[in-house]
Amino acid sequence: xxxxxxxxxETRAPRWATLTATVFGTGYxxxxxxxxxSAVTVVLWGALAYSVPxxxxxxxxxxxxxxxxxxxxxxxxxxxxxxxxxxxxxxxIDEVAGQLIALIAVPFTWxxxxxxxxxxxxxxxxxxxxxxxxxxxxxxTGIVLDDVAAGIYALLVMQILFRFFHLLxxx
Length: 171
What we know:
It is a single chain. The chain is built from seven helices and no strands. The protein is mostly helical and about 170 residues long. The protein has one domain (about 30-165). Helix 2 packs antiparallel against helix 5, helix 4 (about 95-100) packs across helix 5 (about 110-125) and helix 5 packs across helix 7.
């Protein structure tokens, strides 16, 4: 599909979709909009998690991840169609979903957050199987689900580091 100029485009994505898909404009930051999307997610989740009792954090981050996946697929689909691009770089809601998944049930420490950030970004960039294959799914589904898979890889490594090697401790 060929990208059209904004003048030639007949339709624009609804404002809610653009704001959601770009995480309120974070996707327009350079360099590396995906890295910015992940970093914003870590900071916002840290601030929110700080204000939530520790017993509720895991359930809350899972619920947020599911909500972001569902809304993110719809928003990314709208923006993808309007932009004429298969996977626009400025769509970073997928990074939010994957990064939240990477932070499920991890200790509330800066070391855990940094490790989760690095692992998620690494898996998102490297895209080991089946992550890359998920990109072939249509529109917002492919955009979001490949990052969900990268987040699951990061989550698994985080849990192994924490539970088996005790490399990450609860504060």
